[in-house]
Amino acid sequence: MPVTAVGQSVSRKDGIGKATGAAKYADDLTWPGMLHGRTIRSTVPRGRIRAVLFDFDTTGFTIVDHADVPGSNMVDLIERDQPLLAVHEVRHVGEPILLLAHEDKEVLHAARVLVEYEELPPLLDPEGSEQTFKTITIDKGDAAAMAGADLVVEGTYQTGHQEHIYIEPNGVIAVPEDGGITVHGSIQCPFYALKALKALLGPDIPARVVQTETGGGFGGKEEFPSIPAGHAALLAHKSGRPVKIIYDRVEDMVSTTKRHPSIVRHRTGVKRDGTLVAMEVEVILDGGAYVTLSPVVLSRGCIHAAGPYRCDNIRIEGRAVFTNTPPNGAFRGFGAPQTEFAVEVQMERVAEALGMDPVEFRRKNALRAGDTTATGQVLREDCSALAVLDEAVRRTEFARKRTEYEGTDRAIGLSLFYHGAGFTGSGERYLKSRARLEVTPTGVRIATGSTEIGQGTRTMHAQIVADALGVPYESVEVAQPDTKHVVDSGPTVASRTCMVVGKILEECAVEMRSELGKLSPAEYFAKHGAMTVERMYEPPDWIRWDDATYRGDAYATYGWGCDVVELEVDPDTFDVRLLEVTAVQEFGRPIHPALARGQIEGGTVQGLGYALLERVVMRNGAMANAQLTNYTIPTTLDVPEIDVVMLENPYPGGPFGAKGLGELPMDGPAPAVVNALRHLGHDIRAIPATPEMIAASPVAART
Ligand code: MOS
Questions:
Q1: Which residue in 72, 259, 285, 457 could disulfide with 452, CB within 3.0 to 4.6 Å?
Q2: Percentage of residues in the chain with pLDDT exceeding 70?
Q3: Is 332 in the pocket of ligand 1 (CB under 6 A)?
Q4: Mean per-residue pLDDT for 658-685?
Q5: Which of 187, 189, 221, 222 gets mutated to test ligand 1 (max ligand atoms within 8 A of its CB)?
Q6: Residue pair 512/439 in contact by the 8 Å Cβ criterion
């Protein structure tokens, strides 16, 4: 089969629209008679609501509280514990209590609502929390083997919240339509929002969700938009008019989900020769005030907590706990950036304790084909830990620079990491994702629930279909995700959109090709009319997973990465200047090299921000720095050009050999930065490593 689009950096399907401004984001859309909506939120981290008082003329306002909910007032997610609108109590700052809508935005925002609380003492320290959302234990071999180690190294590592900073804040518009409500919005997973709307609106009010052009998600628009979508729907239902809710940046930062802060404790036993004997890992995630996706974030975090290393005896114990802070949720990497930070700094310290070169130590212990992971999964030929490590070390002349920078303000450090692609364990089997391909008068149309959120979904899916069907890339169009017109392809998350949904599309295209015979899609349409092919995802048949014991094949495949960071620390200000960043990653095969490179560059920069800059300051349970002036993310001035290397190792279960890529690049930068700082003698165990922390970190306390 001649391959023409896959492997080429063809022009993006969404490129012209975004470059010219023709693309319509939620706030670009308006409807006749549209109102603007606003959310009144709690200002205390914990309390009982005593009274709600309106200190304004309510004429012309639509006002909604929990009593206006036609169906269930609970966000329909893993648990149903989070109210759409508070009833008697609030558990975190920013919790929605009341909704207002008015046709004049200024009048709307001038309205004063006073909420009186009986304040209660908040629980803010996750380690002090006895309310656990989820616990996980992973056991491999016998943790008692620790007793046979020559050396045991212990360490505690911490990571902070991280805010997504998608360029477009959350925004939705709910429109009354055909006796029901249609929500248009900046939404990563339209079918998640649909499920939540159905529960909220009840059986008598049909719901529909349409994804508008979306300015970034990173997990932040995975589960969260069910809340603004629900709020707008309630206002639209009560007023009978379209209602738009657009968060400004401050509201978005104060009240939406963030990456879970973590505390991870390691005990690692090794032989003198560097062999890993036993690993004990304790993972604590701060879930915030409601469950959201914490159980699955904890799951992925725990599964990756021992890093890409061979060790016969591993015990990992994790828990996600309640605090009176805004709920944390999905964020690129989903728990793995937290636990892989911890294990990679721990491995660096173990190598130091042994007096062993960090590369040699990793080379000795890195997972190889035939080895088993912490869950007992036997790795296949798609394991590339050694390949990425060797390439990164060779390319950066790591050993030479390590010696050369000795005694200067410069240092070089690395991290080795991996990331499972797709839903965990049997997840893809339960999900039963579908995709559909339709013959049109001019070519074919892809109809899936997968969303374009900047990462290149439309382009990459169209490339796969074009080549599998043997038609020009230009003749493939991609339908807007509208729950009325597309099938549920599962959520656009978990590095699954290329590998899993792309695979279903490839199979649809192959089937359609045989139906078409010698005709092109357009010729077929002219002769026979429309044709539709729809298929469901079948995970590889060898996957065995036990949710009760956490044993088995956690993921169909993994991506592998090694990041090398060279940096310089200003001896007076402790400012870190990044000199060179190298990202060597293996994710099967890139469908679109420029987009794949963009994912790696973007994820790496997001990881560098996580490492050095992005600090959420919580005061009495509220984000105190909810502005881009004091919650700073890296700009082009903060990051050198990244040397991206895409190693190929085609994965037979993915379309054209592709694995998932979206999250992998997020896992490596933070430990690589901190390991470089270690080499300068700064013993950093928590991120972000701000200049204040670097200044305060003991110098030359190496173990
Ligand atoms: Mo997600 S954190 O978009 O899987």
A1: 457
A2: 99
A3: yes
A4: 98
A5: 222
A6: yes
One domain, residues 508 and 450: yes
Query: Is residue 455 domain-shared with residue 416, that is, in the same domain?
Result: no
Q: Which of 570, 564, 604, 562 is nearest to 410 (CA)?
A: 570
Of 428, 493, 500, 555, which is best to mutate to test ligand 1, by the most ligand atoms within 8 angstroms of its C-beta? 493
Q: pLDDT of 425-446, one tens digit each?
A: 999 999 999 999 999 999 999 9
Q: Tell me, yes or no, whether 507 and 442 share the same domain.
A: yes
Torsional class of 676: left (φ above 0), alpha (ψ -120 to 50), beta (otherwise): alpha
Judgement on whether residues 561 and 684 belong to the same structural domain of the protein: yes
Q: Residue 355's domain is classified under what CATH number?
A: 3.30.365.10
Read off the pTM. 0.98
**Residue 601 lies inside a defined structural domain of this protein:** yes
The three-state (H, E, C) secondary structure of 351-413, written as one string: HHHHCCCHHHHHHHHECCCCCECCCCCECCCCCCHHHHHHHHHHHHCHHHHHHHCCCCCEEEE
Same domain membership, residue 448 and residue 414: no
Q: Is 494 close to ligand 1, i.e. is its CB under 6 Å away?
A: yes
The answer to whether position 6 is within a domain reads no
User: How many Å lie between the centroid of ligand 1 and the Cα of residue 330?
Assistant: 5
Residue 226 parent element (H or E): helix 226-239
Cβ of 330 closer than 6 Å to ligand 1, yes or no, is yes
Question: Both 179 and 307 in a single domain?
Answer: no
Residue 3 confidence (pLDDT) above 90: no
Task: Say whether pLDDT at 623 is over 80.
Answer: yes
**Which of the listed residues 536, 567, 589 is the one where a domain comes to its end?**
536
DSSP states along 534-587: EEE----TT--EETTTTEE-S-S-EEEEEEEEEEEE-TTT--EEEEEEEEEEE-
Q: Is residue 616 part of a domain?
A: yes
Q: Residue 652 has which token pair?
A: 């037979």
Last residue of a domain, one of 239, 255, 271: 255
Q: Are residues 47 and 183 in the same domain?
A: yes
The pLDDT tens digits for 537-565 are: 999 999 999 999 999 999 999 999 999 99
Query: Which residues touch 418 (CB under 8 Å, ≥6 apart)?
Result: 304, 307, 308, 367, 385, 558, 559, 560, 561, 664, 667
Q: In angstroms, rounded to a whole number, what is the distance separating the alpha carbons of residues 424 and 172?
A: 30
Please indicate, yes or no, whether residues 80 and 56 belong to a single structural domain of this protein: yes
Instruction: Kindly report, residue by residue over 13-70, the tens digit of the pLDDT.
Output: 999 999 999 999 999 999 999 999 999 999 999 999 999 999 999 999 999 999 999 9
**CA separation for the pair 410, 405 (Å, rounded):** 6
Closest CA to ligand 1's atom 3? 219
Tokens 């930062």: give the residue. Answer: 253
The one-letter amino acid code at 7 reads G
Domain contains 542: no
**Ligand 1 mean position to 459 CA, how many Å?**
20
Q: Which long-range contacts (CB under 8 A, 24 or more apart) does 11-19 make?
A: 11/459, 12/456, 12/458, 12/459, 12/595, 13/452, 13/458, 13/459, 13/462, 13/477, 13/478, 14/213, 14/452, 14/458, 14/459, 17/213, 18/213
The range of the structural domain enclosing residue 482 comes to 15-24+427-536
Q: How many domains in the chain? A: 3
**Pocket flag, ligand 1, residue 331 (CB < 6 Å):** yes
